[in-house]
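user: can you give me the structure for this one chain? tokens are fine.
assistant: on it. calling the predictor now.
[tool input]
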Amino acid sequence: MDSAQESTSAESTERLSRRLLTGPYGPYCDRILRDGVTPELIQDMKAEIPKCPVGDGNGFRDLVAVLFLIFLRGVVDEELARTEMPAKGGSADIELPMRLEVLREHPLWEMWTRRYGIRSIVVEAKNTRDKVSVSAVAQIQNYLDTAQRGKFGFLVSRSGFEPGAYENLVHIAEKNECLIIPLEADDLFRLLDASADGCAAISEYLRRQETLLLRQLELKRRQAGGQRLRPR
């Protein structure tokens, strides 16, 4: 790397660190911008996930932000990514602006961007001992409805989702106007594994998460049909 490239990398890292992270995960941002996604980085991030204490909301938010910079490398604008995006009724945990100019290279994201009008991806991260409830789903849906960033987001829960919360996510996907993909801690590890295989593997994993939501909808319809046919 020549001096001009080193200067550009340093300036980018400074902007990202100032906008996104000033805490212990900042050095990982430096590595992402400087070296890209390396096997060493993936292993280090796998080690960081269990180190983050349950209940540390800000720490988990920042950790998830770095993970998404890895998962969506090349799809989002790392330098403009930020935490605490202002929104009506509060602030969304993470905003990841889309690189709209490169979406032809990422067919899944091109399709989702057209369908849901994505300008930025909104991420909410919950680091509680309890499973996420319907209120968390309503929270991120409100941000998507009011922040004018598009109608696509991720809801990340350290401890999983209550049945009612997952059912609400299914109903949201059913309308085909908004998509909120749920992710649990195990998904973060699997996405890190997929990151080692590149963007196509990440897209495949996320596309399957959407498919699982839609299959739950099909299952509910079949169950409802069976109930109607059941003799009284």
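assistant: here you go. The beta strands are 82-87, 90-97, 120-126, 152-157, 179-184. The chain has one domain: 3-229.
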